[in-house]
Amino acid sequence: MEELGQVYPSEATPPCNVSHAPPAPPSLAAAVAAANESCTDLSCYMVLTEAEKTVIGSICFLAGPATFLENVLVLGVIAASRRLRRRPSYLFIGSLALADVFASCFFTSSFLDFHLFRRRDGRHAYLFKLGGVTLAFTGSVGSLLLTALDRYVCIHHAPSYKAVLTRRRALLGLAALWAVTALVAFLPLLGWTCPTGLVPPCSRLFPYIHSRYLACWTGFMLALLGLILAAYALVLWRAHQHEASMVGLGGGACGGGGARMRMDIRLARTLGLILLILAGCWLPVLSFMLADVSQRLTRAHQRAFAFCSTLCLVNSAVNPLLYALRCRELRQALARLLKQGRGRCRGGRGRGNSREGTGAPSQSITEGNGSSPGSEEEALGESLSEAVEKKQLAVIRK
């Protein structure tokens, strides 16, 4: 028994049970780190719940077609009007509309395929789709910058505006913009991708994208937004300076005991609305991208980013309302096209109606070229480009 006791210890002194003890639970930070590091396929980027899919899908299904139709309408009106397509201002607006058409197609299709239908494309197919989305949104913000610079030149160099910003220079500027935009957008497809597949230093927001490329693109977009803000600030400063000089001379927009609102105040309201919408749609997305560069994001951050990215599509839907359809000349061109369409439809029934339909546009052109100012309600609702053109005339007459 003593020998057996030496071979098999008693139950009071059991052998070492360390291997049978349950392991200590890992900390929350270690669990999150393990989850972040274990991304092996595209499923770790498909993070939306069913309720979130419904909400975001509804936004895309509503904003996508609306964005497409609005911007195609703007492009059609500019292309059909010989007078509009020869002016640099409307060339820039046409470029903005073209970029937003691309955004409505590329973003809506790729976003819904990936997040809602969970389609897993190959590496090159995914990078091509992402390049199309990047091309569209970069071209949109770049076109906004050209529009802001056009208004800056219009009001700061009013006497020489037509000599400084010719149609040829505007086309060269657009060609340079789209060349740089295409190069920046398709750099990942050309080879600047994450060398480790889907683990760090890859982005947690976009598969196969290197964090350095994401940092460069985010900085590029922030620089464009900063230049837009600076250009509009200079436009507003010049308008305020001119209004102050007119008040000092005893005339100007404040004549009549302040019954009419000053031009610089109207410009400030319009610019404030433009910049507020632009910042509200883009800063949340760019903030998440900067955070992705500096730290590891969780699934909650990924879901929030997916929602914020739809705001960029909303911005493309709002752009025609802010920059194109508020322009009186473009609305008059649209009305002429509609009258011509009605005249041609009636022309099949009788020649008299056809002549009536073709005679109306000439009357609209005469009315559109009139130099007499409209009512105060029209002045408050006019677009920024028309306000800048009035300011240009005022500076020239001064």
What does this structure look like?
- By secondary structure, this protein is mainly alpha-helical.
- 74% of the residues lie in helices and 0% in strands.
- The protein contains 16 helices and no strands.
- It has helices at residues 2-7, 28-37, 50-80, 82-85, 88-116, 123-156, 161-164, 167-185, 187-190, 211-248, 263-294, 299-324, 328-347, 351-368, 376-381, 384-397.
- Helix 3 (50-80) packs across helix 13.
- The N and C termini lie far apart (121 Å).
- Residues 1-37, 251-260, 352-383 and 392-398 have low confidence and may be disordered.
Question: What tags apply to this protein structure?
Answer:
single chain, 398 residues, 74% helix, disordered N terminus
Q: Strand share of the residues?
A: under 5%
Supply Rg.
Answer: 30 Å
Number of strands: 0
Distance between the termini: 121 Å
Major sheet characteristics: none
Q: Structural class of the helix and strand makeup?
A: mainly alpha
- Arithmetic mean of pLDDT: 76
Low-pLDDT residue intervals, each spanning 5 or more residues: 1-37, 251-260, 352-383, 392-398
Instruction: Using the alpha-carbon principal axes, give the shape.
Output: globular
Order of helices and strands: HHHHHHHHHHHHHHHH
